[in-house]
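BUG: 3D viewer hangs when loading the predicted structure for this chain

Environment: internal workstation, default settings.
Expected: structure renders.
Actual: progress bar stalls at 90%.

Input used:
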Amino acid sequence: MPEGKKIKIDEGSEFQENSAEGGKSLGVGADDEREPKIDPVDTAQSVESEEIKDLKSKLEIKTGEAEESYDRLLRVSAEFENYKKRTAREMADFKKYANQSLLRELLPVIDNLDLAIKAAAEASDNTDACLLDGVELTRKEILKVFENFHVEPIDALGKPFDPNFHEAVMREESDEHPENTVVNELQKGYLMHDRLLRPSMVVVAMPKNKEIS
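Structure tokens produced before the viewer hung:
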């Protein structure tokens, strides 16, 4: 009996050891099949590649936004430069012609003085010479003011009719002057710088025996 018991224990131990080794072997094989090995280098490269793609995409977006902002800046700068030039031009024109209305109102004064001098020259010797000198002096002083503000009379008599500077109020038959020549000036015209302040009222020549259309 003691010998049989010993044999039983030995067989059991051997069986248990074999069973344990077999189980251990089977357990390792199952784990290898369920969890495949992953290369850390490939994983890092994949993550890095995704990050680079994301950065490139963001860079393209920001580059486009920067280009749009730069184009907008160029347009705004160009518009501002045009605005400054236009404002400077308008300011210069305002200073240049600021007194235009006032000077135009003084033109009838010159007209009346011219008429007074002309009437005095055509009158008898009873004309007061001192009064005539005063009128002429007044006229000269006003013309000096005009000159200071670049107001000049238009030279129309004997010149071809120009609708930009002349206003024809009548026509007169004449063989001494070419057609459409100014033969008489009823009211003198004036320029302020290069701008018409008032046109000359003139009489224009026409050939004799030609009907007025």
